[in-house]
Specification:
mainly alpha
């Protein structure tokens, strides 16, 4: 029956699922053996086949399992990326099976990662895992080389630039740090959200004054045409007090590209003051209505609400009339 089922459904995943199901019954061990033979015969090049054979070798220990993976990687170049990922997943899960063999497991993971590097099989996640295994002090040069090569392969990876910034901050001093930061911004500038993430990492590694200077100094690298970075700039300014936040807001409020989030954020900053300056809040809400009233009716409601709370119902009515 099992053989007939395999003939009908020509998929190695189906064979593997059959093996997993049938081997629950001890009396069916011979059927399991037959299914393994069918798997190898019908799907010899499938990464699923090699992965299943390698996992089966875990009965014999770590090394036989790893060697079977390497045999598959050497024999099946076309499917090597998916097989490499399967091998990586298996190896990083091995500590649950062999908790007392961490040294052997780590050595084999490093062996696999080096193979992946030589054959261009490493993803960003593989590289990040590898970096975690390297010590910043005793393996500084190796870590620097790995990051350098990885960023050549994945120049727009925010995760790798984060790793680079953290590493450079620890090992190369302020000039090297600023150089890496500048390179990171240039590499990810096409994606506004990535630029924000790079800035957030940079600011998290600096004290508040140094971070503020980086945003506002003569050689500031902040892209003020990026709406998301404008918001980040305003948020950072708010940490220094409402007066600084107003300065930043004023510089952006009537400059394209227009973004309603800037006005809403400034309104929140004004409202958070112990004593709200109604004049300043009115200025913000007026700008919000002027630039975004057509697409955001809520702006008019907020402006009218402010006047109502200030006991100016006629002004509130005028604002709502304008909004209509």
């Amino acid at each position: 029956v099992a053989t007939n089922a395999v003939e009908s459904i020509k998929d190695p995943k189906f064979v593997v699922s059959l093996i997993a199901t049938i081997r629950r019954f001890q009396f069916a061990e011979s059927v399991v053996t037959d299914l393994f033979d069918i798997l190898v015969e019908k799907f010899p090049s499938s990464p699923i086949t090699w992965d299943t054979l390698a996992r089966e070798k875990l009965k014999e220990g770590i090394v036989p399992c790893v060697e079977k993976y390497f045999e598959g990687l050497e024999n099946e170049k076309d499917g090597s990326k998916s097989l490499f990922q399967m091998a990586f997943t298996t190896l990083i899960d091995l500590p649950t099976l062999y908790p007392k063999s961490m040294v052997r497991i780590t050595k084999n993971i490093l062996r696999l990662l080096n193979y992946g590097k030589e054959h261009n099989l490493l993803s960003v996640d593989h590289i990040k895992f590898w970096l975690q295994l390297l010590d910043d002090e005793t393996q500084k040069e190796k870590k620097a080389d790995l990051l350098s090569e990885a960023l050549q392969q994945y120049p727009d990876s925010v995760d790798l630039w984060k790793e680079q910034l953290v590493f450079t901050n620890k090992s190369k001093g302020s000039k090297g740090f600023e150089k890496s930061f500048s390179e990171a911004l240039e590499s990810v500038q096409a994606d506004s959200s990535s630029s924000v993430k790079i800035w957030e990492v940079m600011l998290s590694l600096l004290d508040s004054d140094a971070g503020w200077e980086l945003m506002n100094g003569e050689s500031a690298l902040l892209d003020t045409n990026n709406p998301s970075l404008r918001l980040l700039h305003l948020d950072r300014a708010s940490y220094r007090g409402v007066a600084t936040a107003r300065e930043v807001y004023t510089a952006y409020r009537d400059q394209p590209p227009f973004n309603s989030a800037l006005h809403w954020r400034m309104a929140d900053i004004e409202r958070a003051e112990a004593k709200v300056d109604l004049g300043q809040l009115r200025l913000v809400l007026t700008s919000l209505c002027d630039y975004h009233g057509q697409e955001e009716p809520q702006a008019w409601m907020e402006a009218a609400k402010l006047e109502t709370e200030a006991n100016k119902p006629l002004e509130a009515a005028k604002i709502l009339a304008r909004g209509e």
